[in-house]
Amino acid sequence: MAIRVALVDDHPLMLKIVHQELGRELDLDILWDCQESGEMIARIVRQPPDVLVLDLSFAGQAFEPVAAVQDLRARFPQMGVLILTANDDPLWIEELLRAGARGYVIKSENISLKLAEAVRTVAQGRTFLSPTAAVGLSAAHQRHTLTARERAILRLASQGSSNTEIAETLGITNGTVRNHISNIYAKLGVDTREAAIRAAQTLRELPKPGASLRHELRTPLHTLLGLARLLDAKWERSGQLLASDRELLHQIVLEAERLDGLIDELT
Hints:
Layout: E1 3-8, H1 12-23, E2 28-34, H2 40-46, E3 51-54, H3 65-75, E4 80-85, H4 90-99, E5 103-106, H5 111-123, E6 128-129, H6 131-138, H7 148-158, H8 163-170, H9 174-188, H10 193-202, H11 211-238, H12 245-266
Parallel strand pairs: 1-2, 1-3, 3-4, 4-5, 5-6
Helix pairs in contact: 1-11, 3-4, 4-6, 7-9, 7-10, 8-9, 9-10, 11-12
């Protein structure tokens, strides 16, 4: 029986790459994909997969990945969660595995060689780490001052979310958010949100400054790598490229222009 797979990623080209990579595997069946994190639960309820392949970042959407993975594992214990992301910060790797993710694959690595194997491993209830993720995890272990919920609240705060938005994202009350923030201030010896974020980053309780920007730059870069590797794999298999591959070449140009625009915004 084929392993049922679902894909959640806000980048349509990355979804296309993953579809093509996994679609060649006879023992894998892609049930559905979506680009909106808010649609994910409803889609899982309608068509539950054996493995959910999940990105960490959804542009313009309130999303806290650690809390989301914890919720997914509680609500759908038979489903394995495989993280596929451009983010290689060791803190994310450790936090998400603690939350219940069974696998972590970095998009910059050759997913042609890793992704199908990762899906099969996670479906068997075992843990899969791509090489970069394994190295990151080995460097991540530390004792935390803040609780997992406090770190989740600060991660959302560092993205500019208000108390109300944090409460809605995590499914808790405004009062609970305020209580957690008071505890955070006391533990870190600060009295403002900005100071708490800086202190947590210094202590490596939060990803280092600029992590979100690096992720935004890496996403089109990794998409370019994925598209180029797809074309290279086709050439290796058949010694030729088809007319339909011109669309992939066009997408490479578009992603290169997008990356160039993001870099321009930094200057």
